[in-house]
Amino acid sequence: MKRTIAALLSLTFFASLTGAASAADAANGKRLSERWCASCHVVSSSQQRGNTQAPPFSEVAKKPHIDAPMLALFLLLPHPKMPDMNLSRFEAGDIAAYIASLK
C-alpha cells in the first residue's frame, strides 16, 4: 500500500512538472535566465561569455535526450555544481521552456 501511494505521488509530481513546462512562458524564462543564470552560463547569443565550467544554454538545448520537462525537474532538484536557486515550479518551467526553444 505504501509503495502504491509513493508511486502515485511520484506520478502526480512528474505530471505537474510536465504541465508546468508545457504551459510555460519561454520569454519569461529568458528574462529569468539573464538575471539568475548568466553569471555562469551563456544564456543568449548576445552574451559574450560565461563560466567555463557551465555549458551554454544552446549546448544544453541541442542534447537529444533533453526536453523541457526534464530540464524543469533538473532545475528543481538539488544537484552538485549549481547553487540552489530556490525556483518555483513555474519559474523552472519557464527557464526550461526557454532553453528548449534554443534547439
Secondary structure topology:
Layout (H helix, E strand, L loop, with lengths): L1 H21 L3 H11 L20 H6 L5 H9 L12 H13 L2
Overall CATH class: Mainly Alpha
Number of domains: 1
Broad structural category: mainly alpha
The tally of helices reads: 5
CATH architecture annotation name: Orthogonal Bundle
Report on this structure.
The chain has a single domain (2-101), classed as Cytochrome Bc1 Complex, Chain D, domain 2 (Orthogonal Bundle). The protein is 58% helix and 0% strand. The chain is built from 5 helices and no strands. Helix 1 packs across helix 4. The longest helix is centred in the first third of the chain and has 21 residues, at 2-22. The N and C termini lie far apart (42 Å). The model has no long low-confidence stretch (mean pLDDT 84).
A few lines on this structure:
With 103 residues, the protein is an all-alpha fold. It has helices at 2-22, 26-36, 57-62, 68-76, 89-101.
